[in-house]
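Posting this for the archive.
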Amino acid sequence: MRVLVTGSSGRIGSRLAASLLRRGMAVRGLDLNSCGLESASFDEVIGSLDDRFAVERATDGIHAVLHLGAFMSWRPGDDSKLYRVNCKGTRLLLEAAAAAGVRRFVFASSGEVYPENSPVELPITETHPLRPTTAYGLTKLFGEELVRYHARAGKMEAVILRFSHVQDADELLDEKSFFSGPRFFYRPRIRQLEEFGNHALANSLRDSDPGAPALILPRNEHGQPFRMHITDSRDMVDGIILALETASAAGETFNLGATEPVDFEPVVAEMSKLTDYPVVPFNFPGPGVYYTTSNEKARRELGFKPRWTIDRMLREASKSRRLRLAGM
């Protein structure tokens, strides 16, 4: 089988391509950047999802598409690019895949289609109402509808995976990480708020800056610490491959992510022990982030078995941090 992986230079896509190669499959990547894989069974197309010629080259001779590629942003002013890459790009890819005779199309959607940060009911299952509140979530929901349309209109099987938040373990204790930096570290959170244009809140955090590197314990306006799912990229790769290979997954939608949510209070306390950074609690306006998403359907129907708990991820993150600080 020859498989196309879009977003092949990303944290999940690069691991996924390598895993497919180890399983004896031929793999093609599509991304703006090379993923650096060297194998006789791997080739890649360097290009954008919204480039019709690039996606037509990428889908030529392909049997299955794992569509992970997307533009992800919550910054003001990025909406046009979000719609162009995530909506137009997905449409062009589906059209090219259908013309090429692709048999299975696996689409990486997001929990932001619910959205997880504003749940109507808990735990969030695949039947939860779909009410995105961000442009990114809206583009993912539109992508889902495009995938379903093409599955109805032709012979291509489709599987939709609603991704949890995903990280490589070694990012968790890295202040420079795109996600973990502002999620867990005080000053990166201030910088992120500035980028998002929330200057008033950034100034409130700056007023409480302890004057040295610190961790932040985010809480809602009533003092409740945040809770969310954080899933190791290796578990996500396993789930995507199950979606590719499980015949009965055709036509189904699955939440894909860690089984247990991460409660920030004990996790940030453990991060403090590992970094020697103090913890600064901060109450954010509104209800905050507090949800549990069920992966029961994926475990039952795909045989999905996440292996990387947050404790295990933190142990690996601590080793990576020590090596990074030692310059190794």
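The mean pLDDT is 96. The CA atoms of residues 227 and 244 lie 30 Å apart.
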